[in-house]
Design brief:
Layout: H1 8-24, E1 35-43, E2 46-54, E3 65-71, H2 80-84, H3 89-97, E4 100-104, H4 112-120, E5 125-135, H5 137-148, E6 155-159, H6 168-171, E7 176-179, H7 187-197
Parallel strand pairs: 3-4, 3-5, 5-6, 6-7
Antiparallel strand pairs: 1-2, 2-4
Length: 198
C-alpha cells in the first residue's frame, strides 16, 4: 500500500495473537485488544480488507461506543484515513472521543450493513451512533450505502464528491454534511447532491 509504511513487526505480533486465540478457541481481536488491527471481515461471500481502530477502555467499561465507517477515494486504500488524509486526523479525533473507526478497501455500497453487523457481533458498537464519511469515490459510496440502508447511519459526510441518492423520503431523515472544496473538480456532483437532499 502506497499510503502507509507497513509495520511488519506489529503485524507479526498480531498474527501471533490470532494464532494463540485460534488455539485457545477465543475471539481476536475484541474490545480487550485496543489499537489498530488490519483484518479481513466476512461480508456475504467475500472477505473485505479493513483497517480497524478499537478504542481504549478503562477496566470494566463495556459501554457501547460510536462507529465511524471511513470510505477512501479512487486509487486509495483502507490506509488513507489512518495515514493520509490530514495525517490521520480522523483517527486522532475518534480516539479522543472513544469511537471505533473502520476503513474498508473499495467497499461496495451493499457491504455496508453486513460490515457493521459483523463488527457489532464482536465489539460494543452503539448501533444508534454509526456514522459514514466518504471522500470523492468514497462519498458516492457513502451516499449509495445510506440510500440502500437509511436506517443504518446516524449521519453521512460526503467530502469532495456526490452521488445519486435514492428513496429521498427515507434519506431525508438522515443528517448530511456535503463538503466540496472551492476549486474541487467534483464540486458539481457535491452541489447536485446537496440540491437533491434539500
Amino acid at each position: 500500500a502506497h499510503e502507509t509504511d507497513v509495520p511488519a513487526a506489529r503485524l507479526f505480533d498480531e498474527l501471533d495473537a490470532f494464532a494463540t486465540a485460534l488455539r485457545d478457541g477465543v475471539s481476536h481481536p475484541t474490545d480487550a485488544h485496543p489499537g489498530e488491527h488490519w483484518l479481513r471481515v466476512p461480508v456475504g461471500s467475500r472477505a473485505l480488507p479493513v483497517r480497524l481502530r478499537v478504542p481504549e477502555r478503562e477496566a470494566g467499561d463495556t459501554a457501547a461506543r460510536p462507529l465511524i465507517v471511513a470510505l477512501h477515494g479512487m486509487g486509495g486504500s483502507e490506509h488513507l484515513f489512518f495515514d493520509g488524509y490530514g495525517d490521520g486526523l480522523l483517527i486522532r479525533l475518534a480516539a479522543a472521543r472513544g469511537a471505533y473507526v473502520v476503513a474498508p478497501r473499495a467497499m461496495p455500497a451493499g457491504a455496508a450493513e453486513p460490515l457493521v453487523e459483523a463488527l457489532a457481533a464482536r465489539f460494543a458498537i452503539d448501533r444508534e451512533r454509526v456514522f459514514v464519511i466518504g471522500h470523492s469515490m468514497g462519498a458516492a459510496t457513502a451516499v449509495a450505502a445510506a440510500s440502500r440502508f437509511p436506517e443504518l447511519f446516524a449521519k453521512v459526510v460526503a467530502i469532495g464528491g456526490g452521488g445519486r441518492p435514492t428513496d429521498l423520503d427515507e434519506l431525508g431523515k438522515v443528517p448530511f454534511l456535503v463538503a466540496p472544496g472551492e476549486h474541487d473538480f467534483a464540486r458539481p456532483g457535491a452541489e447536485a447532491l446537496a440540491a437533491a437532499l434539500a
